[in-house]
């Protein structure tokens, strides 16, 4: 029997560090509505939880908000032109729920939908495949006021919004992602409180996780019924997790964090069941009585693609009495059960977020997903790094970001050569933008944004990425 992986591998052989990706590999870049659009009150848009959160003193560094952001709402045509110059094959963006359905219920706002229709048409005119994410964290504020994601009804509201958006754009967008990183919405939004809506309630965060997945399942069912030919999926932020040592106590810490970071979403969505050990770990927080009969069947409605966002690895150990609390992105203090682990810093190079750079972890994550859920086509829907950038003579040289992309793309190539069905890669991010609770202080873009003038300057990593796309691979190192 021919193994498709081995014939694919044959075309991909490294030649002195030069690697080639499969024909048709989808090269893209990603953004999210609240991080780039601005125009927060225009054409009928109403506040989301991120508008409220960013306008609450003390929540976002330096009081930054997304009111103007990259002003993409008004500059999208220039931004699409830039994407075309870089040769992007695809662009992953998100739709702002309160722009297309103000308040989160009731009829669509035509002006909001028209914006996305113009954007999509412009992308298609430039030969760029639109990839649409329905939810990248901007819940309409009235839905939060009614209870937010810990409330079951929010899942039904989301399915309604998904259908209405799909009805308007489904004739021209083929790739649909329901949620971006439900882990962040649930555990940073309702657990640690570091993200909007800023609540710190462990039980609520576990209910939120469930209702986010329920909303996902309901939306997939509705969209699939409307257009079975579409590629439907969800994007999860998956981590490589390893124990600091091989002691049973450290191994148990790794099991726990793998459960809470990865399996709590992977297993219900792809296998229709919560992992037994995670249910056990969370017993001190919730009895799972919010899970109703049939929910897991809905949640595990088959997908056509899985999006993976990869940034770093968690190295964990058993806790030490009296240890310093960790920064929220590693061990959110109210991340349920996180008091049972200690996050370890290894002293390897980090980005400006202090996230350890670990390209082999990307291969591990892809191998794991492929082993446990074989056949499912995978896309890296986000991968990238923040570094401090400086404009010198009108140019931005960013060798560290470029090296990060290079090492992670080599990891992607390694995974493909091993037979993993990885079909595309989206750099985070097309341009510098509002980095959530860090405001504009962290730059992830391949394109530099001067927030005073809104000038865009492609950094050296953008020029390099354009060349990668052009040759469908990486040059020798
Ligand atoms: C991910 C988010 C994205 C961006 C990157 C750095 O968690 O999906 O919006 O903030 O991190």
CATH class category: Alpha Beta
How many helices? Answer: 16
Total number of distinct structural domains: 1
Strand arrangement within the widest β-sheet reads 2-3-4-5-6-8-11-14
The oligomeric status of these chains comes to single chain
Bound molecules: beta-D-fucopyranose
Radius of gyration: 21 Å
Low-confidence stretches: 1-10, 327-332
Fraction of residues in helices? 40-55%
Question: How are the SSEs ordered, and which strands pair?
Answer:
Blueprint: H1 4-11, E1 19-20, E2 26-30, H2 33-36, H3 49-54, H4 72-86, E3 90-94, H5 97-100, H6 110-125, E4 129-135, H7 141-145, H8 153-169, E5 175-180, H9 182-192, H10 202-226, E6 231-237, E7 240-243, H11 248-271, H12 276-281, H13 295-299, E8 305-309, E9 313-317, E10 342-343, H14 359-372, E11 378-382, E12 391-392, E13 395-396, H15 399-417, E14 422-428, E15 447-450, E16 455-458, H16 460-471, E17 473-474
Parallel strand pairs: 2-3, 2-14, 3-4, 4-5, 5-6, 6-8, 7-9, 8-11, 11-14
Antiparallel strand pairs: 1-17, 9-10, 12-13, 15-16
Bound molecules: beta-D-fucopyranose (FCB).
